[in-house]
């Protein structure tokens, strides 16, 4: 009896310690979600501004943004930047992204190279037939995203100058109401006629049409750099927001399970303890009755 109650007592203590850890991780995840979601909201407005700046520049430039002969090189590879996670306890976050990347890239006939951001997503993609290239460290804060984006852009530009890649896709999980997150894909490069037509089709928000004053080509290049930077920055911020939302949901489920486990353990512990007390009382009562029956004073 004592061994059983002692074992239950140890289990209750272990579950209580685990509950404290889960609550701490839940608080950290909730705090992180706030900063990443704020960054995403701020980036949405800035991204819209950059797009409008590109629209203003492109409407004044008649020639294609990229020379026709350089827009699509069938022999050049496609690079895919995939954002995942470095840590676990986030459910199917990396599995969903890996499946989405494989299905999306399956229809591309050219050679494909995948650059991963996060060790967990890289381990998932290792099990596929995709060719893995560069590996980047996932940022742990908003301030660390900018250096990462700089590294990716430098790598892209280096390979583009060598004509080793012609297209760049960005894969990441994006926050979504109702399902926590959804896998998303954006074609980052090339900046060809398709990209140009999509931009110039945007309606200008006012009745006064824009005009670029002096140095239209220089202004366009500046906006293109910002477009590439913000696209990658937003992808990373959305991925981190989705990751922490997934972790928060996982911790909430874990907390609920631990609460139910503790309730069952405490119920079993008190039942065994009461059973032990009842047996002791029964022994005392039985002994008293035996002594009374034999006339013991």
Number of strands: 5
Distance between the termini: 33 Å
Largest sheet: 5 strands, mixed
Low-confidence stretches: 64-74
Q: What would CATH call the homologous superfamily?
A: ATP synthase, F1 complex, gamma subunit
**Total domain units:** 1
Q: Helix/strand/pairing class, anyone?
A: alpha/beta
Q: What name does CATH use for the topology?
A: Pyruvate Kinase, Chain: A, domain 1
Task: Characterise the protein shown here.
α1 packs antiparallel against α7, α3 packs across α4 (119-126) and α5 packs across α7. β1 (77-83), α3 (93-105) and β2 (112-117) form a beta-alpha-beta unit. This protein has 297 residues and is an alpha/beta fold. 62% of the residues lie in helices and 14% in strands. The chain is elongated. Strands 3-2-1-4-5 form a 5-stranded mixed beta sheet, with helices on both faces. The protein is built from 7 helices and 5 strands; from the N terminus they run ααβαβαβαββαα. The protein has helices spanning 2-58, 68-71, 93-105, 119-126, 145-161, 193-200, 216-293; strands at residues 77-83, 112-117, 131-136, 165-176, 180-189. It has a single domain (26-250), classed as Pyruvate Kinase, Chain: A, domain 1 (3-Layer(aba) Sandwich), CATH 3.40.1380.10.
